[in-house]
Design brief:
single chain; 255 residues; alpha/beta; 9 helices
């Protein structure tokens, strides 16, 4: 590898690890303070997550563009999902607790960090797990957090939106909540691998070969577009269809 690219990758990785450890420390402190000072603990946690998200996006040399107005919490927010960068990108703008797959909890180091950041895990192979998840979502919103869901259920390559899984939207239906939405898009410089290869992490590709490609980019653009109006429906399947239709109107496919 070119020595300059090797240095760039190493320096960026050190920054990612360092900022994550600092953010992890503050979120842990928030957990410790929650029983005695719940409001202060939530403010500390939110500031730590925003700080972490912004620092990580800078570490990846991402030029972040936000279009529209982020929703005021607590609320339910859905976005498309194409990369592990989606989490720091959204966290840099929204006080968010994310809903993620249960296997993420077992990831070395990252699983511990995500758990400390109030991630709600769902085991999609167990239908009975939905009730537990809905209770945790309710608890997160009661603490003033926005709950962020990736309704596609997995990450895609950015050329379109995958069909939405409606199960977790049942919470919004039962509570009569409007669901806010946003779309995510990445761009890479001319002459570099397209975002579908360098930024989007999808299919069965392992993290090990993907991460170096991302780190070798001189820079990238990340666009987060918030919808103008939330979506309501009395049926979760109908809600999933209407949300996807609204997002497709604003979504711009990545090459």
């Amino acid at each position: 590898m070119n020595p300059l690219l090797l240095f760039r990758s190493a320096w960026r990785t050190l920054r990612v690890v360092g900022y994550t450890l600092i953010g992890f420390g503050f979120t842990l402190l928030g957990h410790v303070l929650r029983p005695v000072a719940p409001r202060f603990a939530v403010r500390l946690r939110n500031r730590a997550m925003r700080w972490w998200g912004r620092r990580l996006m800078r570490s990846f040399a991402a030029r972040v563009h936000v279009e529209g107005t982020p929703p005021a919490g607590p609320c339910f927010l859905v976005t498309n999902h194409v990369s592990y960068l989606d989490i720091p990108l959204v966290a840099s703008c929204v006080d968010a607790a994310f809903v993620g797959k249960a296997e993420l909890r077992t990831w070395p180091v990252a699983g511990t960090v995500m758990t400390a950041a109030d991630t709600v895990y769902i085991d999609r192979s167990r239908k009975r797990d939905l009730l537990r998840v809905l209770e945790q979502v309710d608890a997160a919103m009661a603490r003033g957090l926005n709950v962020v869901l990736f309704p596609e259920g997995t990450s895609g390559r950015g050329d379109s939106l995958l069909p939405f899984k409606p199960s977790l939207l049942q919470f919004a239906v039962e509570k009569g909540l409007p669901v806010h939405w946003a779309t995510i898009e990445y761009r890479t410089p001319d002459g570099e691998p397209p975002p579908s290869r360098a930024v989007c992490w999808w299919g069965d590709e392992a993290l090990a070969p993907h991460y170096p490609r991302l780190m070798r980019l001189p820079w990238l653009e990340a666009v987060l577009r918030f919808g103008d109006e939330p979506v309501r429906a009395d049926d979760r399947k109908q809600l999933a269809l209407e949300l996807r239709a609204a997002m497709l109107e604003r979504f711009q496919p990545m090459p």
